[in-house]
Write a structure and sequence with these properties.
Elements (H helix, E strand, L loop, with lengths): L1 H19 L3 H11 L5 H26 L4 H27 L5 H28 L17 H21 L5 H10 L4 H26 L4 H21 L5 H20 L3
Pfam families: TauE
Membrane topology: Multi-pass membrane protein
Subcellular location: Cell membrane; Membrane
Length: 265
């Protein structure tokens, strides 16, 4: 049944990503754990590998369109790729030393990341709809023409890359928050920069998980079968639905999913 159910579930996830622009790994990894009973480490590795193709295809399109800020991508990637290997190395050391309840720890970690991430996005969405702007809390923007700006960008990339390496969650969403917070990009370049950075990060992260043996190709291929057409369908349908309502619904669902993961084991 898994061979039929997983592509159908992946199709739904892909459509949600196409409709809202967020939620790929945040939906797929919990889905693999909660619905299909896949161990946390295998769910993470397989999801990273499956997400890579979708990001690479999208990133290539944005690169072709010129909707990418290559300077931001470069300095974020210089931090995020080593950061992801740091996260993967922590998993490897834990596995080699026979750490007890590793999958339980990873499931809880994913839950907390989802809960915090989705709450931040939902709060930001509500504030924007209420036309409330918290100017006093606006952080300074990074200037990539200075060494300080470059170092700070790499540090942010390293921290977020480590989270992605550990949990598979946030290659798009976490970095989108960072781009919005620390850089002044027009909306088109914001999306393109986020996708291209995520594509590069996921290529290296996927290779790392593959070397650990946490990639199950019997999961990856059905996920590809569902998510790729799902994203294309969702992208076509997105103009038919109010995006704000869709995103608010998705963030609310992710908060519930995060809570369930935290209390699963």
């Amino acid at each position: 049944m898994l061979s039929l159910q997983l592509p159908l579930a992946s199709l739904l996830v892909g459509m949600l990503v196409g409709l809202t622009g967020v939620g790929g790994a945040a939906l797929m990894t919990p889905l693999l754990i909660l619905v299909f009973g896949i161990p946390g480490s295998v769910a993470i590795g397989s999801d990273v590998m499956s997400a890579t193709l979708m990001k690479v295809v999208g990133g290539a399109k944005h690169w072709q369109q010129g909707t990418v800020d290559l300077e931001v991508v470069k300095w974020l990637t210089l931090g995020s790729v080593p950061g992801s290997f740091m996260g993967i190395t922590l998993l490897s050391v834990a596995r080699q030393n026979g750490v007890q309840n590793l999958d339980s720890f990873l499931i809880h970690l994913i839950g907390y990341v989802l809960l915090v991430l989705s709450s931040v996005f939902l709060g930001k969405l509500v504030l924007s709809r209420l036309k409330i702007k918290l100017d006093a809390f606006d952080p300074p923007k990074f200037d990539l023409n200075t060494n300080r700006g470059r170092i700070l960008t790499m540090l942010v990339g390293a921290v977020l890359g480590a989270v992605v390496g550990l949990t598979s969650v946030g290659s798009g969403s976490l970095f989108a928050i960072a781009l919005i917070t620390f850089f002044s990009l027009d909306p088109y370049k914001l999306i393109g920069t986020d996708i291209v950075q995520a594509a590069i990060l996921l290529i290296f992260t996927a290779l790392g998980h593959w070397s650990l043996g946490t990639v199950d190709w019997s999961l990856v291929l059905p996920i590809w079968l569902g998510t790729v057409p799902g994203v294309l369908i969702g992208a076509r349908l997105c103009k038919m639905f109010p995006r704000t309502a869709l995103q608010a619904t998705l963030y609310s669902i992710l908060i519930v999913v995060g809570w369930q993961l935290i209390h699963k084991v």
